[in-house]
Amino acid sequence: MIRLRVWANLRPMGWFGHAAGEYFLEYDPQWLAQPGGYVLAPQFPLTGERFTGALVRSFFENLLPEGTALDDVVAALALRAPSTFELLSLLGKELPGVLSLLPEGAQPAPLQQYRALPYEVLSDRLQSQKPLLLSNEQTTMSLAGAQEKMGLRFDSRSKQLSESVGTSLTTHILKPDTRQLRYQPSAINEYACMKLARALKLPVPDVWFLRVPEPVYLVARYDRMDVAGNIIGLHQFDGCQLLGHGAGWKYERQGGLVSVPKLVAALRSLPVRGSDLLQLQQWVMFNYLIGNADAHAKNLSVLVDDKGFRLAPFYDLLCVRAYGDTGLALYIGDEDSFD
């Protein structure tokens, strides 16, 4: 048996490991006994049992990058057909939401540290072939999704960028223009769509557009909170994790395992507030109006704490019709395309 410790900020939450050829998840007895505990996902209630099988695998796979972004990370690390467990053991100091995965005996550092990241250094990294996710050699992190990105800390007043050291948490996500020529420019596209959403009073994080001199898009992490100068993570899971499916099923056309009605039903079963369901309806409508055919199940997330569940602010909003994409990631009624 091999396992990693699952941490929720500075609290031990449980273990993720594999034994007898399958992955498992177990909650720490302290997590179950102390007040303030919450589930990792709806499929894993707060009990002392060991959870195994496809649901465990899918949840943790969803914490990793996808597609070419993952391929680039694997190549840069000189790995050959790595397992989900191996990748998370290498990238697990900072994961989406509240989580970190560390070896037995290690724990997150209570003192958070950051190092200035000058624009010229960032510019060099953007021109490098090394994945941005691996560019900070002072720590490791994983960010889900198919776009290249990195986590960092950003001072909105001074516009100064900093990168985390060790297990210190980042506060913002930076995305450059995609390297796929077909989808350029992407940074200004996403920035404009997010600003439009804010102008319409839709729930979105703060965003910025910088030139270093390469154009980059910055978005505040909704899964982070500043408490007296200390950054803490907020637990979340995305639409695929909510439904218990891997990232490979995030499009409805890939087998129909995800859909807007299925997401609505799953949200109701949590439950969430009625206003959150209205928010989901607004998300569908706004994505249609801006031409975001790529609004898939991993572009919706739920925030979790000991008081319950709530829909996270909107993110990854951009007009992909500008690039010729018209096939809907999630169908609207019986329609699977803008055309």
Question: What does this molecule look like?
Answer:
There is one protein chain. This protein has 9 helices and 18 strands. By secondary structure, the chain is an alpha+beta fold. It has a 6-stranded antiparallel sheet, with helices on one face. It has a 5-stranded antiparallel sheet with strand order 4-3-2-1-5. The chain has a 3-stranded antiparallel sheet with strand order 14-15-16. It has 3 domains: 2-102, no CATH class; 113-227, no CATH class; 234-337, Orthogonal Bundle (Phosphatidylinositol 3-kinase Catalytic Subunit, Chain A, Domain 5).
Helix content: 25-40%
Strand content: 25-35%
Biggest sheet architecture? 6 strands, antiparallel
Number of helices: 9
Task: Specify Rg, calculated over alpha carbons.
Answer: 19 Å
Number of strands: 18
Mean of residue pLDDT?
96
Count of the domains: 3
Q: What would you call the quaternary organization?
A: single chain
